[in-house]
Design brief:
391 residues; alpha/beta; Rossmann fold; 2 domains; seven-stranded mixed sheet; 7 strands; S-adenosyl-L-methionine; transferase
């Protein structure tokens, strides 16, 4: 589910003179995706150019050209600009107190990310006291709103995630259709490896035959899981915060049915951290896979803890993959800390996290490559956690 940065205004504004002008803190959303969510966001692009390619086949050039033209037309002539407009429109449509809280959260998060790597001396030298005071005032105001309206930081993070992914959902899905849902070969190979690990967990002695895809988007890795051997549709569940992403996933991959049980793939639009999996009858899985998704969630540790609670014992696996690598995610964080709160855990960080949370029963089976390492450039990011037999 990983975006190019949406809220991508440079944070260098914090060191400008004249910072007492509150307009310095009125950041705007800038582009990075295509697509948009709107009241008619789930309408298909009409004509031959709209033929979907969930089979993995690229559209022929004529159909691809038509699909691109129809997509651009649908978003006012420019997909990127249309996406930005939909993001801004969605923000404006929020309840006033939520909109104000979200704006304050954005400003504070950007400021905190800017000053976090600074030494105290650098902060005193580069950040005028009046700017720090303004942010402190904004922080108090945000805290008041959150307490009065019972809003959490996770929910504010999810406001930006949901709006952004809703806005980009249709175009991302259609653009994937055009290329047959294919990535560059070297990136696809990394995703394929992760999917093979997730599927292999469904074949062991204690397997239940279930895979959970967190941040599934429009079903981007369904085909990769099928190619890796996830043959029965009802072995798969995908969850995503964006309803429009889920609508696209259902439209493309929800029609397949298990010939024996009559059941199909299960897609749900909800918050992974709070969703009641038991209500859908799929509360335990052989593997939980985060493909380009973990860093989009508001709390990495809580997300891994939730995944652990959904895993079967005796070899259930959490698989975290980002084909573009750990350094790519760090670049996203630096450019857009509102959407990407932190980088992916390093091997050392995983050791510390798992030691801290021994109750999860997870062990690091496959160490990820560190950012900027030769291995990160060659392999991308892949971490595999296995649940032991006693949990």
């Amino acid at each position: 589910m990983s975006p190019s940065c949406i809220i991508n205004q440079p944070t260098a504004f914090l060191t400008r003179c004249g910072a007492s002008d509150r307009q310095l803190f009125k950041l705007h959303l800038s582009g990075g995706f295509g697509g948009g969510g709107s009241s008619n966001a789930n309408k298909k692009v009409s004509g031959k150019g709209s033929q979907k390619s969930s089979s993995g086949k690229k559209m022929n050039p004529r159909d691809a050209r038509r699909a691109n033209e129809q997509l651009a037309e649908r978003y006012g002539g420019d997909v990127r600009r249309g996406t930005q407009e939909r993001i801004l429109s969605s923000l404006e449509s929020l309840d006033p107190h939520v909109r104000e809280a979200a704006e304050l959260y954005k400003v504070i998060t950007k400021f905190d990310a800017l000053v976090a790597p600074m030494t105290p001396a650098d902060r005193n030298r580069l950040i005028p006291p009046i700017q720090s005071q303004m942010v402190d005032d904004e922080r108090k105001k945000l805290q008041t709103i959150m307490e009065e309206h019972n809003i959490s930081e996770r929910e504010l993070h999810n406001v930006y995630q949901r709006i952004t992914w809703d806005a980009s959902a249709d175009a991302k899905a259609i653009q994937a259709d055009i290329v047959g849902n294919a990535m560059k070969p070297e990136l696809q190979g990394r995703v394929t490896k992760a999917c093979e690990i997730a599927v292999q967990a469904t074949r062991s002695e204690f397997a239940l035959g279930k895979v959970l895809d967190v941040g599934c988007g429009h079903g981007a890795i369904v085909r990769s899981l099928v190619d890796a051997g996830l043959s029965e549709p009802d072995m798969y569940m995908g969850i995503d915060l964006s309803q429009i992403m889920i609508n696209n996933a259902v439209d493309r991959y929800g029609s397949a049915r298990n010939g024996r049980t009559g059941k199909g793939r299960h897609f749900v639009a909800d918050d992974f951290l709070t969703h009641d999996f038991g209500a859908g009858g799929m509360s335990v899985f052989d593997s939980v896979i985060f493909c380009s998704a973990l860093h989009d969630l508001p709390d990495v540790e809580a997300s891994i803890g939730r995944a652990a609670s959904l895993l079967r014992s005796n070899g259930g696996k959490v698989v975290i993959v980002h084909a573009q690598g750990a350094e790519h995610v760090l670049e996203q964080h630096r450019a857009n800390p509102v959407m990407v709160k932190r980088g992916l855990p390093t091997s050392k960080e995983w050791a510390d996290i798992l030691k801290k949370h021994n109750e999860w029963g997870l062990a690091l089976e496959y160490d990820p490559a560190d950012p900027k390492s030769a291995r990160d450039m060659k392999e991308g990011y892949l971490a595999v956690l296995t649940k032991d037999s006693d949990r």
